[in-house]
Structure formats: structure tokens, C-alpha cells
Design brief:
Rossmann fold, 315 residues, 35% helix, 17% strand, eight-stranded mixed β-sheet, disordered N terminus, alpha/beta, globular
Length: 315
């Protein structure tokens, strides 16, 4: 006996059409109903601070080179407002944000941890300045208009802060710190300008990218080329030839961060150059300055405070 198999093609086609329609609705993977991504905001030298954070103010200064205003955020410790201490001078930590581009508000939430530890008396009072790194964060880009992020910071913002606030206007009372892209910036700037800082704490920096820039004469990609030698590898080699003045360095990174391995490799590179440094490896923390500070931020703050003391500042 022969059996006839029913023709199922039309039914299958309809079923697949129904399923496909459902997937279009419920899953962005299969269709065009995906929620649009937030567009990256255009870079601005001045950005509004939209958070109420303890001790934090937003301010601007006029850039002498660009003839435009530049924004920064500043954390002033509780002791700064004490009328009994109106002539007391405070050390300053300059914090370089991550991201490219970022802005002066990007890392400012760290002030919550800063304020907690300073208010509790766990570390000496310090001013923190949150820097706007420019359109290619913390790099000088001479061929672009208004894109000399490093120079605006080092040559313009620092003198403005010293002229405006009760700071120790000397390297013995000045530190630099940053994370991710800001860790790259911190590493480059601390080796280029050791006469400006006595303490440096680069975190989570993308040293694999910096190594590629070194090996390809400044080229990070087809559309992004930096000044030859302006990278964390070549500048470390240059500093190692004459490591003066003495710079105390703390490299910090989380073990779950995507830059963890290349930070280990960079530390091995510094050892090969006989450049001394300390390290803070934070277990089970991803690529996040906030989470590092929530777990071990006090250690970074105490590192700076100890370096201020060593450099000759009184408590």
C-alpha cells in the first residue's frame, strides 16, 4: 500500500513568516526594531555639572592659547572652607578622565570616595581637580583646531589653579592620576613633565595601544596619528636615561579589566628600564575607576599623601 505525503510547504512558509514577524518585534537581533543607541555627544570644552557632589564645584578659565573658556571640576576638602584655615595651603591631585573624548564631569563621582576618606580623617586633606582632556583626551593634536589637550592642562590649567586656589604651587604638592585613557595620559605626562609632579598614579591604561603607536611611529590607526615618540613606551625610555627629578609611581589595575594583562606587561617593561614603581592589583574588579576606588581608593589617596610628605610638605 502506498501512502501520500501531504504537501506542507505552504504551511511551513506561513509558519516561518509568522515566526520572523514575531522575532522582528521581540528581538533586536533579527530585525530593525532595535532601540537606537545613544549618539555620542560632540566634544565641548565646557560641560555643565549635573550632579550634586560633596565639596565639588564647576568652574571655567580662559585659555590663553585658544581664546575660549575651558571647564574643570574641583573638589575642595571640608578644611578648605574653615575660616580658621583661610591661609592654609593644600596639595593638589589632577585627575585625568577616561574616554575619548570625555570631559571634566566624566570622573567627578569619585569625589564621593574622596570626601568620605578625607572627612573621616583617614588621609590628609587634598584638592582634586578633574581635567577636561580635549577632543583626543590628554593628547596634543597640532594639526587640529583647539585640540592641544595636554598643553591646555599642563601649561594653562595648572597655573590657573595655583593662581586661584590655596594650593602648594610646587611639584612637592602636586600629583597626577587618571584611569583608562586618562591612565595613558597620566603615564605620558608624568614622564614628559616630572618637574611638575612628585606623585603619579596611572590606572587601567591601554598600554597595548601605546606600544603599537611606538612601533608604528605614532600611528594608532589610519585616521589617528600622534607626534612621533609621544607614547608611554618611548617616553619611559627617554625618562630612564635621566630619571630626574625623582618621580614616585603607583600603577593600579583590576584583575578583571580588559587592560589587566597589558598593564602587567608594561610593568615588566618598566622593570627592564630600572624605573621604580609600586603596584596596586585589585582582585575581581573590572575596568572601572569607580569600583577600584570603592574597594581600594584609600590606598591611592594615601600613596599621594605619603609622597607629599616625602617631598617636604608638613602635615
Amino acid at each position: 500500500m502506498q501512502y501520500r505525503i501531504p504537501q506542507l510547504k505552504p504551511v511551513i512558509s506561513i509558519s516561518f513568516a509568522v515566526i520572523a514577524s514575531m522575532l522582528l518585534i521581540i528581538s533586536p537581533v533579527y530585525g530593525q526594531q532595535q532601540k537606537p543607541k545613544n549618539k555620542q555627544q560632540p566634544f565641548r570644552w565646557v560641560n555643565e555639572l549635573k550632579q550634586d557632589l560633596p565639596g565639588v564645584q564647576h568652574a571655567t578659565f580662559r585659555s590663553p592659547s585658544m581664546k575660549i573658556d575651558v571647564g574643570y571640576c574641583i573638589y575642595l576638602p571640608p578644611q578648605y572652607k574653615d575660616p580658621q584655615n583661610d591661609q592654609q595651603r593644600f596639595p593638589v591631585v589632577y585627575y585625568l578622565h577616561g574616554g575619548r573624548p570625555g570631559n571634566e564631569t566624566k570622573s567627578v563621582r569619585l569625589a564621593q570616595s574622596l570626601h568620605k576618606h578625607i572627612s573621616a580623617g583617614e588621609v590628609r586633606p587634598m584638592i582634586y581637580v578633574f581635567v577636561n582632556g580635549g577632543p583626543v583626551s590628554h593628547y596634543n593634536m597640532p594639526e587640529r583646531e583647539h585640540a592641544m589637550g595636554e598643553d591646555v592642562f599642563v601649561k594653562e590649567l595648572i597655573p590657573h589653579i595655583d593662581a586661584t586656589y590655596l594650593t602648594i604651587a610646587d611639584r612637592k604638592g602636586r600629583a597626577i592620576e587618571g584611569f583608562s585613557q586618562g591612565g595613558r595620559g597620566t603615564t605620558r605626562i608624568m614622564f614628559k613633565h616630572p618637574q611638575r609632579f612628585c606623585s603619579a598614579a596611572p590606572g587601567g591604561a591601554g598600554h597595548a595601544t601605546e606600544k603599537r603607536i611606538s612601533e608604528e611611529n605614532g600611528r594608532e590607526s589610519a585616521n589617528l596619528v600622534f607626534v612621533k615618540g609621544d607614547n608611554t613606551y618611548d617616553l619611559a625610555r627617554q625618562y630612564a636615561k635621566d630619571p630626574q627629578p625623582d618621580l614616585r609611581i603607583l600603577i593600579h589595575v583590576g584583575t578583571k579589566g580588559f587592560n589587566y594583562q597589558n598593564n602587567l606587561e608594561y610593568m615588566a617593561f618598566l622593570k627592564s628600564l630600572k624605573i621604580p614603581f609600586e603596584q596596586l592589583i585589585v582582585p575581581d574588579v573590572p575596568h572601572s575607576a569607580m569600583q577600584i576606588y570603592q574597594k581600594d581608593g584609600l590606598k591611592i589617596m594615601q600613596f599621594h599623601a605619603e609622597n607629599f610628605r616625602r617631598a617636604g610638605m608638613k602635615d
